[in-house]
Amino acid sequence: MSDKMEGASMTGSARPGGAAEVFEQAAPNYDRTGVSFFGPFGAELVRRAAIRPGERVLDVGCGRGAVLFPAAHATGPTGHVTGIDLAPAMVALTAEDVTRAGLTHVDVRVDDAQQPDFPPRSFDAVLAGLVVFLLPQPQQALRAYARLLRSSGRLVISTFGAQDPAFVAATDALAAHLPTDQARPARPAGPFADEQAITATMDGAGLTVTSIVAHRIESRFDDVDHWVRWMWSHGGRALLQHLPADRLPAATADAAQALDAARDAGGGLSLTTEIRITVAVPADRTGDLPPPSHV
């Protein structure tokens, strides 16, 4: 599964060129379908980032605040958290949530995660929850984040690890009904495919990995219809919206059959997703650091 949902992960395929439009459309229901997914992943990323009171934090691709709000709690009112997202509707809705929560030390703005528009050394921490793999040039984006870090700053990102086999089978079943001119969702690969690839990608961006930790959660769904609603609420809609209307019933039926393997004793669905949380610092600051840890 995925936050913005990577490739064929739980949000389906979100290609860089159309990612902003996909999430603009998803914004009203994004992380609002009663499924435990983005929140737990965001909270764990912030925990691993070890944010301290008073720090200045940038949340890249903030969505509806899965990372933003835990980070705001960690910095406290003496710190500051800025969230950026390229989808204006996502920013507007999250800004309303910030105002309702009375978080005067938080601001949310439209900006590009590929190249955030801030002066060098503006932040103690740059956080990117399940977003970097969606960018056209992820390594270039990582270099940009490194330039934004203060002398003791760190970059913390999350990317996908193993997907639940039932979820993979279900998205494959949906994709089998795409028109022949539509590309099938790609599996997670390339610069974030595994720990070795992540480390090499960070090295190429002038960053040194200090830890890579796996984190898993179980997400529960009332039934297949609930799962489909959830898929529409995030990057998964990039797959669903390309299915012709007359093919949707058959596609959904095939996905339901694939999801039978995930049914629990109560008749609902339980799917497990793994992410990797990577902590890195600029390479010129790593002379005295211990070797990276991998869990």
**Tally of strands:** 8
Q: What is the string of SSEs from the N terminus onward?
A: HHEHEHEEHEHHEHHHEE
CATH architecture of one domain: 3-Layer(aba) Sandwich
CATH superfamily of one domain: Vaccinia Virus protein VP39
Q: Helicity, in percent? A: 25-40%
Major sheet size, sense and barrel closure: 8 strands, mixed
**CA gyration radius, whole angstroms:** 19 Å
Per the principal axes of the C-alpha atoms, what is the gross shape?
globular
List the uncertain runs.
1-17
Number of helices: 10
Main-sheet strand order equals 3-2-1-4-5-7-6-8
CATH first level of one domain: which class?
Answer: Alpha Beta
Distance between the termini: 20 Å
Q: Per CATH, what is the topology of one domain?
A: Rossmann fold
User: How would you classify the helix and strand content by structural class?
Assistant: alpha/beta
Share of β-strand residues: 15-25%
Average pLDDT rating: 90
